[in-house]
Amino acid sequence: MRVGFPFTGNEVELPVYRKLSLLGFVQRLLTKRCASFFARNDKYLLLSGERGASGFEPIGSLQEQAPLQLEQVLSYDEVKLSALLSVSSHTEFINEGERTNCGRVTRNRRSLETQGVIMGLIGARLSRRNLMEFQDIVIARTQNTKQQGYGQEEEMTPTTREQDYRRVWRHFYETPDHLHGTVSIDNKRFGVSGNKQDVFDNLVMKRRYAISFDMLLLEAQARALKANKQAYIHVVGFGLGVWKVAPQQEQIFLETFEQRLRVLHKQLTHIGVVHFSWFKLTRCGGLRDGAVLKSSSHPLGGIRVHLSKRNPAAKLDKPEQENMLLVVSYAWDGNALPGNEFWMKMLKSTGDSSTACSTLITELHNPHINTDYCNGNNLHIVSLQHGVLHISEYAKILLAQSK
């Protein structure tokens, strides 16, 4: 969706986008996904039942081919935006949610948390070169060129669609982009990447993570506040599996999470515990199993941290965990329905599919089933200043501030 003034869409894009409102566009991001979309070769299952692999890059251009056409499916540029959305709701837990649960029903309900909040978060998909977040985070020889719009001075007016597209993402991440060869690895801002010719921008990776972490923390705060409970947040490493391309990504993930906890601590009065589960690192900065990030504004004196292996819906059985609200995050995908591989009967291949087998996300977070709730009109904005607000309330605040 490379549309920006003074550049208009092509004859494929214009009929799709011309009449879309913001909420209509969000609805499109929810409903035009594949049922399943995974692997390096983009294996897919469409809502129509058609299956295949690859062919997503031309979507939205004059070269697109059925069944992968913009009218029916998301383009890669849209998937990049879709990855910034999250869906959350209360759910029942069918079992503890271990990777191999395959929908087993736990009869002894006292052995697990039976209810809580479930929230799908989407990491940076860096495994596809020159696409999605790779465009912003990895500095690559064939990608970061003037022809692709990189390296423009901020005051310059874009003269090509490529330059205009890069302008949008430079503004989004609030940092210049770079031509390949103009920066080098310093193990500070710029680190190594899987391809030895690439440079990994650690700063932009942090900013991408921060968006998801703020959503998780402030949504958990809002849910727990409404329930008059402390939240116990189960955190998984989204984007750290097959999408990862740099060895330092897990450390960046944990460093950024700690930074966001400290920045937001005055607002997180109802976050009791943050439990990082199934990470390789056993400590990072102030994060270690049993640590407390102290805060004078927190009713418990601070937020307790755990860094150990834990199943998502495992029983909260310690005295200090009594009456806590379990908030479980899981790694979702920007171009698939909740469950992803679940819809192709792969029940234990990923955290996405195992979560579908242990919760109610395949219906509750499905825009084709739960049409009133999982709908663009129900869009909420996570704001550092105002918390979680319906977009109508958020718009009223912005309008009042602009007067």
From TrEMBL:
Stored InterPro entries: MavL-like
The encoding gene: LOC117578272
High-level lineage: Eukaryota, Metazoa, Ecdysozoa, Arthropoda, Hexapoda
Provenance organism: Drosophila albomicans (Fruit fly)
Protein name as it appears in the record: Uncharacterized protein LOC117578272 isoform X2
